[in-house]
TrEMBL record:
Annotated InterPro entries: Hybrid_Histidine_Kinase
Protein name from the UniProt record: Nuclear pore protein
Organism phylogeny: Eukaryota, Sar, Stramenopiles, Ochrophyta, Bacillariophyta
Superkingdom field: Eukaryota
Species this protein is from: Ditylum brightwellii
């Protein structure tokens, strides 16, 4: 599949399947590295690290406050994510989040923030639910 793909997008399903297989075999480092590679090709750049802890906590509290003011109807009526690259990126961020959680990785919050950023900038998609539920557990 990888050798015969004409464009990168043709490889995405194969990468998704391979990443899930690596995760199931508990080869979390390989799955994580592959996810980051795919995300890079989709235009989602990896943050090198989280900002200062106090800034993160301040931003989390502000976000929590703004989300508490959001009604269920407003959330359900959010615009849908239509950028196909960002929808694909979100579909790779979700298993990346799972692998990072299982491996006790240090980028867990960074991945959640990346997902939240894409959701707020481009709209809601299926994987946004994973982001928002993870964020609610963190808050």
């Amino acid at each position: 599949i990888f050798a015969h793909a004409k464009v990168y997008r043709d490889k995405l399903r194969a990468y998704a399947t391979l990443i899930k297989a690596l995760g199931a075999q508990y080869k979390l480092k390989e799955a994580t590295d592959m996810c980051f590679g795919v995300l890079s090709q989709l235009g989602v750049q990896r943050q090198s690290s989280l900002p200062d802890t106090s800034a993160v906590l301040r931003d989390l509290m502000a976000l929590k406050s703004s989300l508490e003011d959001l009604s269920g109807d407003e959330l359900l009526n959010s615009r849908e994510m239509v950028n196909s690259d960002m929808v694909a990126a979100m579909s790779f961020l979700q298993p990346l989040l799972f692998c990072n959680f299982l491996s006790h990785g240090d980028q867990f919050l960074t991945i959640v923030f990346d997902m939240l950023y894409l959701t707020l900038k481009y709209g809601i998609c299926e994987e946004s639910c994973c982001c928002l539920s993870t964020l609610s557990a963190v808050l």
